[in-house]
Amino acid sequence: MFKRILVCGTIASCLLSGAALANGYKGEGSLSAPMSSSLFHPYVGLSYVYLHNSYKSSVTETIGSSTTTFSPNATSPNNFSGLSFSSGFKYGKYIGMEFGYAQFGSKNQTAQTTTTTYRPKAGYVDFRAYYPIEQFDLIGVAGFAMTSLGDAKVVNTTSGTTSTLGADDSVVPRLGLGVDYNFNDNWGIRALGKYSFVNSRYVNSAYTLEAGFFYNFTA
Asked: Are strands 59-63 and 95-104 parallel, antiparallel or unpaired?
């Protein structure tokens, strides 16, 4: 499901970029956000993403053949680093849409006799509002993310047995703020912060901080 969102978004952006190029999408030499006779401004981006999860204090879960109550907040790693690939478009100067997929590195935490390992991932769809100020675009984000803790596993460090936790996939709303800086009509950098209202089986909430670059398709 996660990668399907990204594929569909990339195809849509490529189609829009083809339409924009066919209609003579050219920058006007301004250092402000790229503009042209076309309303569509497709782009792709790559970002480093920092993720922080806030977990629930008590969860009853079936692990293997037994039912147990444990604290994700005490036994789970909170902070992750990863990469996000995005594809989207601006429509005119003030609104846009973005599709993306983020994959984070595996991380574990040992508490008492167990080690819990997570490898989070997320696909997302964001609606964006822009406020251009010369070379900058101030950004407001509202969207949905399809989040997962990945192949979450619990290893008993005493017996050596490994169990897979129940799925914690969820669709969650999120809000964010950020800024783009346009070097020219094609290249730019950006920084964003996003807060997700998760409330899944293990996670209460999450936020991400990201920084990266993007490429606008112009001709």
From this structure: unpaired
Average pLDDT over residues 74-87: 91
**Torsion sign (Cα): 126, 132, 135, 138:** negative
DSSP state of 32: S
Residue 22 has pLDDT above 70, yes or no: no
Mean pLDDT confidence for 91-96: 94
Q: Check residue 197 and give its pLDDT.
A: 94
**Cα–Cα distance measured from residue 85 to residue 45, given in angstroms and rounded to the nearest whole number:** 6
**Please, what is the average pLDDT of the chain?**
81
Closest by alpha carbon to 174, among 209, 206, 211? Answer: 206
Residues 6+ apart with CB under 8 A from 57: 71, 72, 73, 74
Alpha helices in 48-207 (DSSP H): 72-75
Contacts 24+ apart (CB under 8 A), 62-69: 62/166, 63/154, 63/163, 63/165, 64/161, 64/163
**Residue 201: what residue type?**
R
User: 27: closest CA among 38, 14, 15, 16?
Assistant: 38
Query: Would you state the structure tokens that stand for residue 134, as one six-digit string?
Result: 């010369």
Please give the Cα distance from 53 to 77 (Å, whole number): 8
Residue 156 reports pLDDT greater than 90: no
Q: Domains of the chain (ranges plus CATH)? A: 2-216 (2.40.160.20)
| pLDDT greater than 50 at residue 23 | no
Q: What is the pTM of this model?
A: 0.78
Phi then psi dihedrals of residue 100, to 5 deg: -160, 165
